[in-house]
Structures are given as structure tokens and as C-alpha cells.
Design goal:
Blueprint lengths: L7 H16 L10 E3 L7 E3 H17 L4 E4 L12 E8 L1 H6 L5 E8 L2 E9 L4 E6 L2 E6 L2 E4 L12 E4 L7 H11 L4 E4 L4 H7 L5 E7 L1 H13 L3 E3 L10 E6 L2 H11 L3
Parallel strand pairs: 3-4, 10-11, 10-12
Antiparallel strand pairs: 1-2, 4-5, 5-6, 6-7, 7-8, 8-9, 12-14, 13-14
Helix pairs in contact: 1-2, 5-6
Catalytic activity: L-histidinol phosphate + H2O = L-histidinol + phosphate
Cofactor: Mg(2+)
Keywords: Amino-acid biosynthesis, Histidine biosynthesis, Hydrolase, Magnesium, Metal-binding
């Protein structure tokens, strides 16, 4: 039954704990089997993805049965509260099956206005980034600290991340390259961990295309809570997926958006 004494953040942390427990026994196992979800291309899914999402869904069915669920691996569950838990059990499965520790568990809670609570959890490192309307913080091996984006960064001084050098369509890749030519440093391949680093004040821009809602809703809530900006490439909402521009502050966002919005 619903436990009215548990806060939304407490529920989100229970979900993240359950996902950690389900996922870690699979990580860096040489015999882990990855199925391809695409007929053309490669979009892997593993037992770890499915087990983690099922574990989180079981908690929500018990503690928040009135809320909807939108997950990566299983069918959506309707709700009656106007709120939706958005779950990506392993964001970065390609990295997961390669043994890199930059994948993460994404948990968001959204309403009609979009996500307002977001968790980016990295089970192997033991880092958890949490964004709420009251602010953002992380808990990791060195303890707890509040998070804040870099407020003074400009485009020329920016650190930029994306997951793949081959970003989306040829036009989207060209737009990304145009931004990349202006910044101080461009790096690749961090999946959701790049958004966490932006919230922590270490990265200034994350630019992506071809996202799903489960990929971006938790990062949106986290980065906004830390003082950053997340939109699509036209300056509109990004929480339904597609193209996303995450920025540390309004000025670096505006400078990158001026380039990307031409696509």
C-alpha cells in the first residue's frame, strides 16, 4: 500500500538501491549476454537492464500504485495521480557491456509540466546525484556535497560532451561540429554521467540527438536543480526526447543554441 510517510526522494532512493542490487552482479561478467533490440544497428539490452527495471516497478506497485510508470524495457503502466515515474535501468548499456563505469540508473518523477525530481546513480563507483525543487546534491565515496553548475563559463571556455562522435543525422552532426569548433575541449562517450558532471560544475555543455524520454528526464531535473538549463535545439522543452542541449548557465546555453537552432 501507499506509504504517505515516505517522501518522493525517499522512494527514488529506494528505487536506486534496488537497481544497484540487481545490476552489480552482472557488471564486468565475461559471460553476460547482450541482445540487440534493433534490426539495423546495435541497441543492446541485458538481463541486468530487465532485472533492475522489474525491481523498481515492484517497489512502485507497492508504495506508489496511483502513479504511472514509463520505463525503458517494459510496457507503460497508467496512473491516476497525474505523476509519472520515468525509469531507465541502465543508461549506457553499450558502456555497461564494455566494462566502463560511466553508465547509470536514471530515475525521474514528472507531472504535466515535466520532470521535477531526478536521480543519476552510478552503482559501481557508488555515486548518486539527486536533483529536487529544493536543490541538487551528490553522495559518493567522499561523502555528501551540494551541487552547482559553472555560472561564469562562456562558449569559448566551455567543456563539451556528447556520447557519440557520429551525432544523429549529417545535419545534426554538422551543427554539433560547429559548436565543438568554438569550445575549449570536446570529449565523448560518457552517456548519462556527462550530465552528472555538468550538474557538479565540471562540464559546461552536453549536446545529444535521438534521445528517448527515459534518457533525458532525470538529467533535466538534476541539471535544473543545480542551476543549469536544458532545452531542445530550438529552445523548447526536451523532456519527450529527441535533441537535447544541456548547459551550465544561460549565456553558454544561448551561444550554443544560436548555432544549433539553424538545423
Amino acid at each position: 500500500m501507499t506509504d504517505v510517510n515516505l517522501t518522493d526522494v525517499a522512494i527514488a532512493e529506494k528505487l536506486a538501491d534496488a537497481a544497484r542490487q540487481a545490476i552489480l552482479p552482472y557488471f564486468r561478467r565475461a559471460d553476460l549476454d547482450a541482445e540487440n533490440k534493433l534490426a539495423a544497428g546495435f541497441d543492446p539490452v541485458t538481463a541486468a537492464d530487465r532485472d533492475a527495471e522489474l525491481a523498481m516497478r515492484a517497489i512502485l506497485a507497492d508504495l506508489r500504485p496511483q502513479d504511472a510508470i514509463h520505463g525503458e524495457e517494459f510496457a507503460n503502466v497508467p496512473g491516476r495521480s497525474g505523476r509519472t515515474w520515468v525509469l531507465d535501468p541502465i543508461d549506457g548499456t553499450r558502456g555497461f557491456i564494455s566494462g566502463t563505469p560511466t553508465w547509470g540508473v536514471l530515475i525521474a518523477l514528472s507531472d504535466q509540466n515535466g520532470p521535477f525530481l531526478g536521480v543519476v546513480d552510478q552503482p559501481y563507483i557508488g555515486e548518486r546525484f539527486i536533483g529536487t525543487p529544493q536543490g541538487a546534491h551528490m553522495v559518493g565515496p567522499l561523502g555528501r556535497r551540494d551541487l552547482g553548475t559553472r555560472r561564469g563559463a562562456t562558449l569559448d571556455d566551455a567543456v563539451l560532451f556528447t556520447t557519440f562522435p557520429e551525432l544523429g543525422s549529417s545535419d545534426e552532426e554538422a551543427a554539433f561540429r560547429a559548436v565543438s569548433q568554438r569550445v575549449k575541449l570536446t570529449r565523448y562517450g560518457m552517456d548519462c554521467y556527462a550530465y552528472a558532471l555538468l550538474a557538479a560544475g565540471l562540464v559546461d555543455l552536453v549536446i545529444e540527438a535521438g534521445l528517448k524520454a527515459v534518457d533525458i528526464q532525470a538529467p533535466i531535473a538534476l541539471i535544473r536543480a543545480a542551476g543549469g538549463v536544458v532545452t531542445d535545439w530550438q529552445g523548447g522543452p526536451a523532456h519527450e526526447g529527441g535533441r537535447a542541449l544541456a548547459a551550465a548557465n544561460p549565456q553558454v546555453h544561448a551561444a550554443a543554441l544560436e548555432i544549433l537552432s539553424r538545423v
